Amino acid sequence: MTTRIRLVTFDVLHTIITPRQPIHVQYAEVFRPYLGAIPPERIKASFKIALEQAQREFPAYEKGHIGWWTKVVNDTALGAGADAKLVSDKMTTIIPILLKRFSSREGYLAFPDAIPTIEKLHAAGVRTGIVSNGDSRFRKVLEDLGFPEYLGPIILSEEVKIEKPDPRVFEWALRGEGLRAEECLHVGDELEADFVGAKSAKWNAALLKRSEGGKGHTIQELGEVLNLIY
């Protein structure tokens, strides 16, 4: 990099935060009192299918995240073998519980290197923000987990109705910031959405692979971002 980085944005899920327990384990726990015991591995397989279908049919949380996640949870339960009548009767009870859980530290925790890296970037005079294909609840999650108030801009696909890897979502992050694309760096864990998306917007990019790292533009921990800002 020949231009000093003035803004670093991060993806959220699997980059700076992670589920406190695997999603399918948490779903099984919430389902149990209402739908009976469903093997978590069946929920895991069904959730993957339901999530991918919702992402295809209703990109960027079309019509809002509550309806979007209601469909995902409903389809997950049915696909995992839950009784259809119970699902119909109990879904209005289950959905608020899951929405609340995944709006706070109850459902997520911060990676140990996330907040310290953001604080060090701030101390170095580098702005930090978010560009995520997430819904508006991530604002509450980040606040509840103690992320700094100066973290911003926060660009969430539900709010701007654009998803990575569309370069327009990165352009949105620059609105009113007085920055050029080459002064920005995006960090995330998905090759297409984060790395390719940022590059297509003429940003710098780093791909986070916590189990790998160390190859080209790939990093293994967020602290390595501090080596990329000059």
Automatic annotation (TrEMBL):
Molecular function GO terms recorded: phosphatase activity
Stored InterPro entries: HAD-like_hydrolase_domain (IPR051828), HAD-like_sf (IPR036412), HAD-SF_hydro_IA (IPR006439), HAD-SF_hydro_IA_REG-2-like (IPR011949), HAD-SF_hydro_IA_REG-2-like_cap (IPR044924), HAD_sf (IPR023214)
Superkingdom of source: Eukaryota
A GO cellular-component term linked to this record: nucleus
UniProt keyword annotations, A-Z: Hydrolase
Pfam family, one: Hydrolase
Record bears the keyword Hydrolase: yes
Name of this protein: HAD-superfamily hydrolase
Protein source organism: Coprinopsis marcescibilis
